[in-house]
Amino acid sequence: MRHKIGVATLSLGLAMLLAGCAKTSSNAEDKASEIASTANTPALAYALKVKESSQKSALSYDIVKSLTVEVGPRIPGSQGDKRAVAWAEAKLNDLGFDKVYKEPVRVRNWERGFADAKVVSPFPQELIISALGGSIATPESGIEAKVVMFDSLESLIAADKATVQGNIVFLNTKMQRDKAGRFYGKVVPNRVSGAVEAAKQGAQAVIIRSVGTDNSRFAHTGVMRYDDTVEKIPAGAISTADADNLAAMFASQQSSAEDIILNINMQAKDAGWQTSYNVIGEFTGSEKPDEVILISAHLDSWDEGTGALDDGAGVGIVTAAAKLVKDAVGQPKRTIRVILYAAEEIGLVGAYQYVRSNRDTLKNIIFAAESDFGAGQIYQLDTRFAEDVRNNPADLYAALQSMGVELGNNTTSGGPDVSMLPNYGVPVIALKQDGTYYFDYHHTPNDTLDKIKPEDIQQNQTVWAMITAYMAMSDFDPRPAPKG
Amino acid sequence: MRHKIGVATLSLGLAMLLAGCAKTSSNAEDKASEIASTANTPALAYALKVKESSQKSALSYDIVKSLTVEVGPRIPGSQGDKRAVAWAEAKLNDLGFDKVYKEPVRVRNWERGFADAKVVSPFPQELIISALGGSIATPESGIEAKVVMFDSLESLIAADKATVQGNIVFLNTKMQRDKAGRFYGKVVPNRVSGAVEAAKQGAQAVIIRSVGTDNSRFAHTGVMRYDDTVEKIPAGAISTADADNLAAMFASQQSSAEDIILNINMQAKDAGWQTSYNVIGEFTGSEKPDEVILISAHLDSWDEGTGALDDGAGVGIVTAAAKLVKDAVGQPKRTIRVILYAAEEIGLVGAYQYVRSNRDTLKNIIFAAESDFGAGQIYQLDTRFAEDVRNNPADLYAALQSMGVELGNNTTSGGPDVSMLPNYGVPVIALKQDGTYYFDYHHTPNDTLDKIKPEDIQQNQTVWAMITAYMAMSDFDPRPAPKG
Question: Where does the Peptidase M28 domain start and stop, copy by copy (chains A, B) (predicted)?
Answer without folding.
Answer: 278-466
